[in-house]
């Protein structure tokens, strides 16, 4: 399982990038938001990845953050939402906006993405509302105050320990809010684990 790539941005297209890792070029599908966050051609970059496997294909999809990747996983679990539609949604909405739209039941905002009609937007909101829960409440300034990347890395660590994306995000957001600015990854994970284990 390839969970991230660190290398040099070789080239980009409308919906993909090529990341050169030690002389090997990886073709990575990506949202417009991720592509714009990768930086200039030839510079070092990191993408979080999800490997899609079908009967006759294998495809890497890349994201600028672990949070965006978690949302991709949640979205593609909804019936009728494939990788292309999920990337279109993530191109139109930042994870924090998507979270708030789902929690508030704002299907019109979800339908702003290309390829998402009113019925599909309604299904996405309905199916993900319970899974997302209060994530939106913890994705405000508190996450921004954390050490760069610490919150995303903490969520990733929680996922690696077997927590569901929604559980991990809520626990890390709560830990980050309690610890305040400059929280370290270790402190975030320790406190998030304690919060996640509470009934």
TrEMBL record:
Keyword Protein transport part of the UniProt annotation: no
Keyword Iron on entry: no
Residue segments, region Domain III: 148-199
Location of the Helix-hairpin-helix DNA-binding motif class domain: 73-92, 108-127
Xref: Gene3D superfamilies: 5' to 3' exonuclease, C-terminal subdomain (1.10.150.20), DNA helicase RuvA subunit, C-terminal domain (1.10.8.10), Nucleic acid-binding proteins (2.40.50.140)
Molecular function in Gene Ontology: ATP binding; four-way junction DNA binding; four-way junction helicase activity
Span list, region Domain I: 1-64
GO biological process, one term: DNA recombination
Keywords: ATP-binding, Cytoplasm, DNA damage, DNA recombination, DNA repair, DNA-binding, Helicase, Hydrolase, Nucleotide-binding
GO cellular component: cytoplasm; Holliday junction helicase complex; Holliday junction resolvase complex
Location of the protein in the cell: Cytoplasm
Source organism, top-level taxon: Bacteria
Matches recorded under Pfam families: HHH_5 (PF14520), RuvA_C (PF07499), RuvA_N (PF01330)
Function statement: The RuvA-RuvB-RuvC complex processes Holliday junction (HJ) DNA during genetic recombination and DNA repair, while the RuvA-RuvB complex plays an important role in the rescue of blocked DNA replication forks via replication fork reversal (RFR). RuvA specifically binds to HJ cruciform DNA, conferring on it an open structure. The RuvB hexamer acts as an ATP-dependent pump, pulling dsDNA into and through the RuvAB complex. HJ branch migration allows RuvC to scan DNA until it finds its consensus sequence, where it cleaves and resolves the cruciform DNA.
Subunit details: Homotetramer. Forms an RuvA(8)-RuvB(12)-Holliday junction (HJ) complex. HJ DNA is sandwiched between 2 RuvA tetramers; dsDNA enters through RuvA and exits via RuvB. An RuvB hexamer assembles on each DNA strand where it exits the tetramer. Each RuvB hexamer is contacted by two RuvA subunits (via domain III) on 2 adjacent RuvB subunits; this complex drives branch migration. In the full resolvosome a probable DNA-RuvA(4)-RuvB(12)-RuvC(2) complex forms which resolves the HJ.
Family note: Belongs to the RuvA family.
Entry's free-text remark on domains: Has three domains with a flexible linker between the domains II and III and assumes an 'L' shape. Domain III is highly mobile and contacts RuvB.
Protein name (database record): Holliday junction branch migration complex subunit RuvA
């Amino acid at each position: 399982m390839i969970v991230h790539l660190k290398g040099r941005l070789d080239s980009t297209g409308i919906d993909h990038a090529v990341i050169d890792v030690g002389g090997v070029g990886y073709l990575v599908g990506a949202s417009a938001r991720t592509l714009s966050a990768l930086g200039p051609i030839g510079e070092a970059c990191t993408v979080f990845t999800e490997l899609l496997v079908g009967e006759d294909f294998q495809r890497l999809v890349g994201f600028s953050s672990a949070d965006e990747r978690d949302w991709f996983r949640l979205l593609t679990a909804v019936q009728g939402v494939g990788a292309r539609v999920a990337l279109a949604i993530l191109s139109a909405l930042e994870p924090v906006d998507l979270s708030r739209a789902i929690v508030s039941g704002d299907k019109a905002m979800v339908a702003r993405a290309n390829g998402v009609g009113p019925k599909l937007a309604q299904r996405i909101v309905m199916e993900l509302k319970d899974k997302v829960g209060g994530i939106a409440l913890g994705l405000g300034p508190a996450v921004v105050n954390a050490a760069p990347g610490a919150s995303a890395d903490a969520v990733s660590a929680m996922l690696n320990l077997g927590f569901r994306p929604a559980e991990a995000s809520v626990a890390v957001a709560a830990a980050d809010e309690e610890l305040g600015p400059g929280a370290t990854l270790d402190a975030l994970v320790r406190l998030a684990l304690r919060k996640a284990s509470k009934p």
